[in-house]
Amino acid sequence: MQLNSIGLDVTKSKSLSKDLNQLLANFQRYYQNLRGIHWNIKGKRFFDLHVKFEELYTDANLKVDEIAERILTLGGVPLHTFEDYIENSKVPVGKNITKDEDAIRLIVESLSQLLVIERAILEASDEASDEGTNAMMSEFITEQEKTVWMMKAWLAEEI
């Protein structure tokens, strides 16, 4: 087994980089969705939701950078074109969403998709003894589970 500079198996690191690129593409679409609903939200809850959506897209933007830097740390090259993001993402596209409940449902659906990807990466990073990626995924999952719970509570729906 060949190890890279940070002591991880080269083959497993390449595989994790590929998985992280899929996550990166999905986070970019999630980020764009958040920007769109931030800009286009209307209604009586505008002031509260406008601020909340900005908080979420700011956090998503930071996570995009963390994911890209982790890919580089593992020796990979982060995806960086819209074409790549479209081709590699499963998060739904939210277009022209102006209603509060539609926006919140898009966030829940997007985070649910991200969580599936992150749990798979968490499992793979554990098998690769990649504590850096493992810790990142654990942090993301914890935060996103709480956000899903809060959004579902706002919708008055069960988790």
Automatic annotation (TrEMBL):
InterPro entries: DPS_DNA-bd, DPS_DNA-bd_CS, Ferritin-like, Ferritin-like_SF, Ferritin_DPS_dom. Residues 18-156 form the Ferritin/DPS domain. It comes from the Bacteria. GO terms for molecular function: DNA binding; ferric iron binding; oxidoreductase activity, acting on metal ions. CDD domains: DPS (cd01043). Keywords: DNA-binding. SUPFAM superfamilies: Ferritin-like. Belongs to the Dps family. This is Starvation-inducible DNA-binding protein. It comes from Arenibacter palladensis.
